Structure formats: structure tokens, C-alpha cells
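Re-run requested by the PI after the first attempt was lost when the workstation crashed. Everything re-entered from the original request form. Ligand of interest: acetyl coenzyme *A.
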Amino acid sequence: MPDTLTITDNRTGKRYELPISEGAIRATDLRQIKVAPDDGGLMTYDPAFMNTAACRSRITFIDGDNGVLEYRGYPIEQLAERSTFLETAYLLIFGELPTVTQAAEWKQQIGARLAVPEAVRGLTASFARDAHPMGMYLSAFGALSALYPDSKRIADEPTRRLQQHRLLAAAPTVAACGYRHGTGRPFIEPDPSLSFPGNFLAMLFTGDRPYTPHPVLERALDVLFVLHADHEQNCSTSTMRGVGSSHTDPYAAMAGAVAALYGPLHGGANEGVLRMLTEIGSVSAIPGIIEQVKAGKRRLMGFGHRVYKSYDPRALIIKQTADQVFAVTGTNPLLDVALALERIALEDDYFVSRRLYPNVDFYSGLIYQAMGFPASMFTVLFAIGRTAGWLAQWEELVNDAEQKIARPRQIYFGSARRDFVPLEQRG
Ligand code: ACO
């Protein structure tokens, strides 16, 4: 059987044979299909990229129908159980798990760059105390673009590696700057002798007395970072690639990715879930909310996914992690509401017929809240984990000879050409 697609253009009666490779046809092959020589050729129309592959990638594999997620071939369940965030970040960026020597070097390279330039702290201090942490977070990465002008040399591999170390290391420190500013407390210097999540927790929660994170909470946060580390071509990652395709520096590209993540339909959903559960308040109020959702008046936050149509494997792991965290912190009173909401939704034909299941954000907020994070920090926590994936995808983009500046086409349906009307002659 030839790997080709035969198309008959009924407008002209002409037949075309297009090669199929890796389950796809090249959209540019359609341009030969014309009704007249000066016609620009056939395009595909795909708002929101529902069925368009914009790159070939070796990083993350998702089978949405069967709830499969793999980073570089390793199942997410195994990485969540046995790996750490730093090791997973290495795997995503370099393609292989590090050896003992490489892992030690990697920890040292990140640990040496945990401190951020003083200007970032000054920038954070210039915001109102109640500024949203994601707004402060994304502007800090824009500032880092100006503070590290060497990062413009994106064709130079050692320079790119340096920026990757800096960005991974800066993520928790920038987040801590925003948190400490918002809570009116002085900044705590990072401590590279601690684990990646342990240092982050210490920068946030050290008070008048030294702070030692509970090992279960430290591990739970690391697992959450692993679960969020990459998810192939989602909205923020395609933004990282789209902005990066103009050959800007990775800080500017990451500011764009963070901005995309901020939205309530993407990383902002974890904050939205907690606000929704708080608003529901009790199991008896759930049927009323379900009715509002079914009437199209609101969405059930933390439900549904563009790719997962059976279950989100990350949500299952998060549910187990929640049990471990609640054993230490005491249960979150909103857990009962969340469990009942999930049960009621999954028995309802509205959700079943649309294949809407809890996603990664449905339970993560309950864990974060039990650990002491305010809801406004939840999306920042997501962003810290996703930094690994953004950097891996950016590295792949920069090395991909097939990539060019991202530039979608459009179907114009505005006014036909017309002549300018002077102001005094307009009705
Ligand atoms: N609550 C109620 N109905 C929903 C929901 C939801 N959470 N999600 C989708 N639907 C319905 C839509 O109304 C639509 O119904 P219709 O066919 O009757 O019009 C149908 O399901 C398909 O929805 P789409 O919007 O076409 O699905 P899409 O793939 O574009 O959206 C998304 C995916 C954005 C995640 C959506 O499910 C959603 O808004 N969920 C809530 C927000 C959320 O949890 N986002 C986090 C996603 S995970 C992440 O980014 C980390």
C-alpha cells in the first residue's frame, strides 16, 4: 500500500498525489492545488491548532485516549515515583537520564546560579503588595532578558547551556521574591546545599526561626514539579516555541510562555479550581453548580483537556500524593467537596458524553493549600515545574533545521478595497 493520499479537486477535476509521512501530510503540499495559476493554492483552516503538527519532537509522548504520558520514553508514573525534578529536567533537556557524575555536575551548575540579580528584587519590590504573583513572575523574566544580554547568542551552545542553568535556577528564586514581597517579609537567600524543592520551601517559609521542610512535603512538591515538567505542544510551550522562533533570547521567550500559562484555561485553572471549591463550600451545593455548568453559564474548572479523553494520568498520581500530604498536614476540608464533585460529574451524561475528566489542576490546588501556599501562588508553582519543558522544547527548536519563524496564514474576510473618506464627509 503506497503511503500517499490521492485528492481529487472537484472544482477542476484534477488529481493530486501527496506523500504521507509519520501519519501526516505536509500542509505546503496542498499549495499546488489551484483553480488558476495566480491562485495562492489550497490552505488548511485550523483555528486553535486542533489537528496541526507544528514540529517533530523527541521529548514528550502523549496518548490522550489511553491516558499515557512519557518523557523521553519514560512513563510519568515511574518518574513521579523514582526520579527528582532536577533529574527529570536533565532528562527532558538532554534526552537521557544523567549518570552519577552528570547528576552531581548538574546539581552544582543549578545550585551555583540560584541567586538572581539584585535588579529583579528591586523590580519585585516596586509592585503593590497585592500584585498577582504571576504578573510579578512574568515581568521578572522580561527583566532578565535585559540583565543577561549574552543570552542573545542563541546559536552558541555553551551560551545556551548557561541560560538553561540560569533559568532553571532563577525560577524558584524569582517566585520566592514575589511571595516574600506579597507577604511583606524580607527576602531569604537561596541555599544550594538544600534540595531543589527544599530550598524553595525554605526561601518561602523561613520565618523568625530556621525552617526545615517536612520530608514528605518536600518530596510531594518535587513530585508535583515532575508532573508539570512538560506536556508537549500545549499553549505555553507553543508560545515558547513561537516567540523563540524569531530568535529572541530565552528569557523573552519564557516571559511569553509564562504569560500564556497565566490564563484560566491553562495553568491558571489550579487557582480557579480552589476558588470554585471554596465557593461551592459543601457537598449539598454541588447539584446547583452542575446545573449552571450544564446550562453553559460556567465551566467546571480542573475538568476537561484538549488531548486527554479518558483520564489525565497526572491527576491520578496527584490524588495519591494528596493522601500522603494530608497524612502530615491534616485533611483539606475542601477534599470532600472535590471528591463528591468528581463522582457526581463522572456519573452525569453531560461530562461522560463530552469525555470530560479531572485534569492535572483538579487536585493540585488542594495539596498546595494544605502545604501553606496561597491560591495566587498556584500557577507560579506550575510555572517552576514547566520551566524544564519550555527549555527542552526551546533547545529542540533552535536545533531543528526545518523550523523557521512561526507565521500562520489567515483567511481574510474583511472589507474589499475601498477609498479613504475624509472625516468631514463621514456620516
Ligand atoms: N466544564 C464544562 N464543560 C466543558 C468543560 C468544562 N471544564 N470543558 C469542556 N467543556 C465542554 C464545552 O462546553 C464543549 O461543549 P459543547 O460541545 O456542548 O459546546 C465541549 O466540552 C468541548 O469543549 P472545548 O472547549 O471545545 O474543548 P477544548 O479542547 O477547546 O478545551 C479546555 C480544553 C480548555 C481544557 C477545557 O476543557 C476547559 O476550559 N477546562 C476548564 C479549564 C481547565 O481546567 N483548564 C486546565 C487544562 S489542563 C492545563 O492546561 C494544565
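Saved to the shared folder this time. Residues 265-267, 269, 293, 299-306, 354, 356, 359-361 surround acetyl coenzyme *A (CB under 6 Å).
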